Give the backbone structure.
Amino acid sequence: MEEAKLKEILLAESYVSQEDMKQAEEQAEIRHVSFLDILFGKELLTKDIVGQAVAEYFKVPYSDLNTYVPTAEQVQKIPEDIAKKFRIVLFGVDESGVVVTTDDPSRADLMQAVSNAFPNTKISITYSLSEDIDGMFVNYKRALATRFSEIIKTQKSVAPQMFEEIINDALAYRASDIHWEPQEKEVIVRFRIDGILQEAGRIPKQYYENILNRIKVQANMRIDEHFAAQDGSIRYIPENGKEIDLRISIMPTLNGEKVVARVLATYVQGFNLSDLGLSNKFEEMLSRAAKKPFGMIIVAGPTGSGKSTTLYALLKHINNSGINVTTIEDPVEYRIDGVNQMQVNSRVNLTFASGLKSIVRQDPDIILVGEIRDHETAEIAVNAALTGHLLFSTFHANDASTVVPRILDMGVEPFLLGSTLELILSQRLVRKLCEKCRYGAQVGVDELQKIHPAIPDYLSSPVTIYRGKGCEVCNQTGYKGRTGIFEFIPVDAELKELIIRRPSAIDIWKMARKKGAISLFEDGLEKVKRGVTSLEELLRVAQPPDKAYDRKK
């Protein structure tokens, strides 16, 4: 639906006030985003409210495909070609007839198509959001292995067909990475979904070379190189026509060349600040620090913990036409309108340090450094923040309090670091429980101790904890989607004074603790108590703090 029509609907039904809409339009133009992104970010709207508003406009009920999720068997009762052509999903069946949902109830030939699929049946039409309709179409996917077999039988254009099948499957399952792992006689294909690798299928070894060569050609790599690592990227246009970027890495192994493709699709990059899983207190703390005229905000965590996504969401939140935002990244993962983005390039000696030197001569207001990883970059970053720039960066550290001693160990002067640091946050990603099959049960102290001996120190017993049974919606895992858990340390005057004395990580945490800081684990426990994630999933990524961290004071 066109934005103008959607604005008209939301205003006519009083879902949004004229004043809020005007402000959202102004901010959307400044930040180069949709007005909906602004309204979602301010929590004035949700996707379900938009769905209900559009449904009212079409004079049909709204069907929420996230709250009530049709089974695979139910979806497949409508033939795949009909379902995708008319954008329809079977939402419900009872004695009185069938309920079919679509994202275009106004289509003239829709009722006839549904009547052909369900002859002599009473039919009701409802509305669902387009992205939720697309999510249901994954139920038409057969096993990759089955489709591989059919392609291999034809013996024609095996490489392009198989490559496209794998990419389209990865997108349908919202995978963040695709792995091709050569074994002695076959190649295992695995998808990383919600942070966990899952096997998707296997390819006979004799067909892999053609697929590998296709990947190399499209990624502008050398096809005659088999014993060195190579990196590249592919711009791919999938079935829905929305182009995506694939970041390709090839590495030689004993059984052949392994390929990993990072999927940079809209479902990975379309985050606003309010989508990250921040509590209201943490979101306000981050927004406040990002409005300061100069200083450093550092996001810490291991690889794959969502650090870059947090900084991108922050940039989207504060970006406007009145400021100059420039980044130096390795690589540039997501493109942001209105932001000057530069990519590290070792071939021309464009490093974080040399790129940062150039950026400070470009009259920037805000600088994003993809990662502080050496003395030179750290020193230039601190000096940039000290001379009137607001600087964001990521840093590899296990927790927020470790960041300071690690940067000091790189050779940065303590008084300079203390003068520039404004906020340190650490984060991890946990899988969210599937809303379709989530269930809660009361557990006592004995069971809590079996899960982890320290848990009773944090949870009063008995307490309700939640788990996922596993269903078609979550591919029998019990989880669907991910959210962040966070640890924040605001750097106030007292903490700045402490940094000058070269403190240990424990010294920093003790002071932060006295001022109300909570650990990654404790932030995760709040999400466990609300049924967002499970206790087992939290323990997979974060452990209770060591007693030396004085968790009770």
User: Anything to note?
Assistant: The mean pLDDT is 88. The first strand starts at residue 88 and ends at 94.
